[in-house]
Each structure stands twice: as structure tokens, then as C-alpha cells.
């Protein structure tokens, strides 16, 4: 069944956008232009649902502006690819785009950027209004089932029948496993096995779980058996460890941790600024200055009291032990706790604030300047469907805006040029 008449096909270049998320909307908006009908297909009954729930309902739109060379370091997958893409649309373009449409953005202390309104609805409304203004036709609850190549253009099989289009922008987001790619398999693009990124570590056997709620501003967490090591805030939760340092490790170590079936050992250095030698020296000077102070009740190095007491117990230092009389063996144990505290990871938990899928369409087969497929002229990709993902902090949306912009613009420019 054809859901569009022949006249429409003659009068318009039809660009189909698959997916009504951040990347799909940005692509649809930038694909719009004279003589072009953009149709956005969304399989669910809702648009922009991840944008709506993102950033705890506030939508962490992007990150504090920075040079591209620094920005790309926040992408465990896609770093080189995005380096070329960001030359065309980067963080400052995101600021200009939203602010020129009346959405004021604010940068928080840790670099995350939110709408000043503090609600993701502002972003949702802005995108929806822009798409409406440009005449993007939206088809809700109409998923794409198949793509067939025609002599000119493509035929899409949708939940409501077939439609022939000139170009396609695929922005259908992440998939849980290779078996769920459905229609995308027909394109014969190389698919990288999708695996989760951005998760917290479960440590069910570890006594530090009893210290849930304790947080540290700047630690270093390493993954034993790898060269991976990240610094940043850490939070002890009732199921394990979380916070930016752990999330970064989960993103950069996503493949390795997947292969280990999420059984690994993390090593924590509780004060990122101090070396092992510095701990020893500062403990010595403190003991000389205050030999009669009880170790248990005098936490050092910015360690919260509950965690310090835990280190003392782990080091077999009793509650009456004085700094001046600390036996060398216990003293060394305390330094080991502070400098390289081992934590056994046994499983992971989804980070509810933001989670993404690593894997997807292989970047080798997509042009980074246009997002066009190297295998099929007129097919473009944008967003999380590609094998690229960022760490937490607004980097995933930035990738969606950039790739959506490029895919949309390229589809439009090539339409004006060719047809
Ligand atoms: C809870 C949560 C919070 C997050 N918070 C942030 C944040 O604050 N900042 C940040 O940078 N990132 C955040 N992220 C990550 C970010 O949301 C994603 O990286 C981003 O939404 C990806 O956009 P996308 O358009 O590529 O994919 P999606 O947003 O997943 O959109 C894809 C759309 O395609 C539709 N679709 C799929 N298959 C078909 C089909 N066959 N036919 C038609 N439609 C189809 C889907 O229903 C979906 O609506 C968060 C993620 C989650 C889960």
C-alpha cells in the first residue's frame, strides 16, 4: 500500500527521518528547505522521550565550551570520527542554536550545561516548535520495518504501509543487542555489538557498602589488569560505588568489563592529589606533632570521618591507638587503605540519570563530514545508532546535535544540488 500519492513524489524531494529523538529532530530541522518534504517516523507514541527524562528532568544539553582537541577526549568511542564532525558543529554552535531561539543556557560548576528554566520541557518545546515551523511532518506510532533500494531513492516499509523516499536519515538510537537491529540489517552495514556504557559498580561483598552516602570530591579509580585510571568525585551507595570517576571508568572500560562479565577489581586512591610517599610523609609529620591524638578520631587527608574509621578498623587499629605509638605494620596497612584500596566488582547497575549504548553502525562506513553512508548514497546516520558514545556530562546530546545537524544539512544540500 502506498501512503503517499505520485504527485507528492514528483513535487517534493522526500527525506525520511527514522526516529524522533534528539538526533532525529535535529536532523529533520536541518534537512528542511524549499521543495523538500521531511517526514519523521517515530515508532512509539511519544517524541523526544529521552530528552524529556534526561539529566534528572533538567536535560544536560551539552558541556562547557572547550577546544575540539579536549572535547573529543570525552568520547570512549568515536573520538577520531567526531574530531572531523565537530569542526562543523560544536559546543558553541549548540549554545548559539538554542539561545537564538530563546532558550537560555547556564553552565554549572562541574561544566554541565542546562536550560536556565531547569526543565527539559523547554528543550522539547523548542525542538517541536522549530520542526513545526519548518513543516516537518511527524508520524507517531509508525515504525520503520524495512528499507528497499530503488533505482532512484528507497522504499520504506512502515507499520502503516510503504512509502518511496529520496533520502533517509537513520536516527533510531541505541539497540540492546545485535538481534534487535531489524530493518538496519538490510543495509549490510557493519554493526558493532552493542554493549552498555555508563554504569555503576556493584560490590556486594565489600564492607564499604555500609558507608552508603559517603562521598569524596576527588579520587582516582583504576581497573586492575588494564591501564585505565580516572579521577573525579566518588559516591558510596548501598549497592557499590558510583560518581563521575566510576562512570568514566565504566565508559572507557565498557568493552573490557563486558568481556570480564563485570567481574573485576577496582583500586581506589582516596585523595587524587597525594602519592603513596606523600601519605607516608604527612602521616609521619602529623604523628610527630600530635603523638597523643587517637588515630580513630582524627581523620586526615580530607577523608570523611566514617570512612577514616573504616580504614582504621581494616588496618586493625583499635579505638585507643595513638598516632605516636602506631606499630609500623598497622601504619603501613593504613597507608595501603588510603592509597590503593581494592574493591571487588561483581556486576553493574544502570546509572538512572544517563545511560547509553556503546556499539552500533561501524564508523568506518560513514563519512564524518556528512554522515552519509559509504555503502548507500542518500542514506545518512545520526546519534546513538552510530558506534559513538560519550561520558556523562552532556557529551551524548552534543554528539546527537552535531551528527543530526550534519546528516540533515547534507541530505538537504545534496537534494538542492542533485534533484
Ligand atoms: C535516563 C537517561 C538520561 C540521559 N540524560 C542525558 C543527559 O542529560 N545529557 C546527555 O548528553 N545525554 C543523556 N542521555 C543520553 C542521551 O539521551 C542519548 O545519547 C540521546 O538521547 C541519543 O539520541 P538519539 O536521537 O540518537 O536516540 P534516542 O533518543 O534513543 O531516539 C531514537 C528514537 O528512535 C525511535 N525508533 C527506534 N527504532 C525505530 C524505528 N524502527 N522506526 C521509527 N522510530 C524508531 C525510538 O523510539 C526513539 O524515540 C540520557 C540517557 C538516558 C537513558
Rg (CA only): 26 Å
Quote the distance from N terminus to C terminus.
Answer: 25 Å
Bound molecules: flavin-adenine dinucleotide
Low-confidence stretches: 5-10
Q: Which strand order does the major sheet show?
A: 17-16-13-14-15-12-18
> Helix proportion of residues, in percent?
25-40%
Task: Tell me the strand percentage band.
Answer: 15-25%
CATH superfamily of the largest domain: FAD/NAD(P)-binding domain
Could you tell me the CATH topology label of the largest domain. FAD/NAD(P)-binding domain
User: Could you tell me the number of beta strands?
Assistant: 20
How would you describe this structure in keywords?
13 helices; 7-stranded antiparallel sheet; FAD/NAD(P)-binding domain; 5-stranded parallel sheet; binds flavin-adenine dinucleotide; 20 strands; single chain; 2 domains; alpha+beta; 419 residues
What does the model show?
The chain is of the alpha+beta class and 419 residues long. It is built from 13 helices and 20 strands. The longest helix has 24 residues, at 395-418. It has two domains: 6-196 and 353-418, FAD/NAD(P)-binding domain (3-Layer(bba) Sandwich); 199-350, no CATH class. The radius of gyration is 26 Å and the shape is elongated. A hairpin with a 3-residue loop joins strand 14 and strand 15 (240-242). The protein is 32% helix and 24% strand. A seven-stranded antiparallel beta sheet has the order 17-16-13-14-15-12-18. It has a five-stranded parallel beta sheet with strand order 6-2-1-10-20. Helix 2 runs parallel beside helix 13 (395-418). Bound molecules: flavin-adenine dinucleotide. Flavin-adenine dinucleotide binds next to helix 2, helix 3 and helix 13.
Amino acid at each position: 500500500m502506498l501512503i503517499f500519492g505520485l504527485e507528492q513524489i514528483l513535487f517534493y524531494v522526500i527525506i525520511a527521518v527514522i526516529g524522533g529523538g534528539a538526533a532525529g529532530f535535529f536532523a529533520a530541522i536541518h534537512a528542511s528547505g524549499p521543495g523538500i518534504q521531511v517526514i519523521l517516523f517515530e515508532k512509539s507514541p511519544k517524541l523526544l522521550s529521552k530528552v524529556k527524562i534526561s539529566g534528572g528532568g533538567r536535560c544536560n544539553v551539552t558541556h562547557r565550551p572547550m577546544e575540539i582537541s579536549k572535547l573529543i577526549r570525552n568520547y570512549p568511542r568515536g573520538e577520531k570520527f567526531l574530531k572531523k564532525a565537530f569542526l562543523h558543529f560544536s559546543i558553541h554552535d549548540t549554545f548559539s542554536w538554542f539561545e537564538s531561539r530563546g532558550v537560555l543556557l547556564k553552565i554549572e560548576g562541574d561544566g554541565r550545561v542546562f536550560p536556565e528554566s531547569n526543565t527539559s520541557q523547554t528543550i522539547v518545546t523548542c525542538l517541536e516548535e522549530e520542526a513545526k515551523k519548518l513543516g516537518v511532518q511527524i508520524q507517531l506510532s509508525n515504525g520503520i520495518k524495512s528499507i528497499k533500494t530503488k533505482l532512484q531513492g528507497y522504499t520504506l516499509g512502515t507499520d502503516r504501509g510503504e512509502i518511496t523516499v529520496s533520502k533517509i536519515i537513520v536516527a533510531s538510537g541505541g539497540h540492546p543487542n545485535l538481534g534487535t537491529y531489524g530493518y538496519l540489517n538490510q543495509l549490510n552495514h557493519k554493526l558493532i555489538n552493542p554493549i552498555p556504557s555508563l554504569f555503576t559498580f556493584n560490590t556486594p561483598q565489600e564492607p564499604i557498602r555500609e558507608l552508603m552516602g559517603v562521598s569524596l570530591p576527588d579520587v582516582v579509580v583504576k581497573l586492575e589488569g588494564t591501564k585505565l585510571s580516572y579521577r573525579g568525585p566518588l559516591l558510596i551507595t548501598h549497592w557499590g560505588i558510583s560518581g563521575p570517576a566510576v562512570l568514566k571508568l565504566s565508559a572507557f572500560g565498557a568493552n573490557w568489563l563486558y568481556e570480564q562479565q563485570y567481574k573485576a577489581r577496582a583500586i581506589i586512591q582516596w585523595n587524587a592529589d597525594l602519592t603513596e610517599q606523600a601519605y607516608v610523609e604527612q602521616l609521619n609529620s602529623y604523628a610527630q606533632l600530635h603523638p597523643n591524638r587517637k588515630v580513630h578520631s582524627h581523620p586526615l587527608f580530607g577523608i570523611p570521618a566514617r570512612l577514616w574509621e573504616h580504614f582504621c578498623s581494616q588496618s586493625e587499629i583499635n579505638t585507643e591507638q595513638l598516632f605516636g605509638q602506631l606499630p609500623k605494620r598497622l601504619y603501613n596497612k593504613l597507608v595501603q587503605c588510603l592509597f590503593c584500596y581494592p574493591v571487588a566488582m561483581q556486576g553493574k547497575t544502570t546509572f538512572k540519570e544517563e545511560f547509553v549504548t556503546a556499539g552500533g553502525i561501524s564508523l568506518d562506513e560513514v563519512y564524518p563530514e556528512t554522515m552519509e553512508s559509504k555503502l548507500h548514497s542518500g542514506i545518512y546516520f545520526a546519534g546513538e545508532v552510530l558506534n559513538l558514545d560519550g561520558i556523562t556530562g552532556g557529551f551524548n546530546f552534543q554528539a546527537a546535535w552535531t551528527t543530526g545537524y550534519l546528516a540533515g544539512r547534507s541530505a538537504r544540500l545534496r537534494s538542492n544540488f542533485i534533484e
